[in-house]
Amino acid sequence: MSELFGIIGNPIEHSLSPLIQNKAYQSHHIDAHFQAFHVEYQDLETAIKGMKTLGIKGFIVTVPFKAKVIPYLDEIDQTAQKTKAVNIVHMIDGKYVGYNFDGKAHLEALLEDMGIQSLSNQHILIIGAGGAAQSIYYTLSQFKDIKIDIANRTKEKAKILKDIGVNVKNTNVISLAEAENKHIQYDIIIQTTSIGMWPETDKSPINISHLKPGTFVSDIIYNPSETKILKQAHENGARTQNGKKMLALQNALAIEMWTGKKVDYNVMLQTLNEALS
Ligand code: ATR
């Protein structure tokens, strides 16, 4: 029997997950279908119970349910516990287990595009302290001798974020203005806010005009492909990446977990590129 997987969110009409997931099933001969489900706020618990009853083995959770879904799951992994957010759910022995793969997918994409195996000894700037930043920071903070500055508009939120880290002694909380002043010092800059996302593509959280040679700039936004900050980084000779690979890798991780089949994330990356061109 064909399996059914899905994504829950609100709004959900514009999600690209059904397109890229179904493309991956098709190209890897996986007998499954992926469906987007619009869930009303007050119906979340009923929706999860219904999916469990129907035997749906896995689903993605997106805005605004990443934190709200936790009470309705049976277990959550360590990253989800730390970040208080879940974005992938897998049914194991009849139980729904929640995971947060944002950090893992971002790290894999970053290491691959930088062509390195570890981030030890790197000096990193994380811009933002929201949901995505939490998982990314928690994952990066596990590297030995990594130095991380977190810059956020609301400093209090960045201070709370710092506390979820593993090796917090090398983490500093700074303002966006301070980050702009010292941006020349960083090896890697990771932009995790929604600033610069379509349709407000003329915005950037900080101005980066004096990057040190070899700096790598990562923006988790995937639409547009080149945000203002990435464009500026590019113009200043930096290597860059947008959020498409992270998204494709995250979907590949979910499929592998749900079906036991390893899929080539490039199929999804190409589909994303075509859909967003
Ligand atoms: P997500 O889950 O996508 O990370 P979020 O939790 O709402 O979304 O976090 C959004 C991030 O973008 C936050 O770091 C937010 O800064 P604040 O903590 O000060 O709210 C940042 N952000 C969003 N719009 C911003 C803006 N116009 N200027 C500066 N920071 C902004």
Q: What does the model show?
A:
This protein has two domains: 3-100 and 245-275, Leucine Dehydrogenase, chain A, domain 1 (Rossmann fold, 3-Layer(aba) Sandwich); 103-242, NAD(P)-binding Rossmann-like Domain (Rossmann fold, 3-Layer(aba) Sandwich). 36% of the residues lie in helices and 20% in strands. The chain has helices spanning 17-27, 44-53, 78-83, 102-114, 131-140, 155-162, 176-181, 228-235, 244-259, 265-275; strands at 3-9, 32-38, 58-61, 75-76, 88-92, 95-99, 123-127, 147-151, 171-174, 188-191, 216-219, 239-241. The longest helix has 16 residues, at 244-259. The chain is globular, with a radius of gyration of 19 Å. 2'-monophosphoadenosine-5'-diphosphate (ATR) binds next to helix 5.
Summarize the structure in short.
The chain is α/β, with parallel strands linked by helices and 277 residues long. It is built from 10 helices and 12 strands.
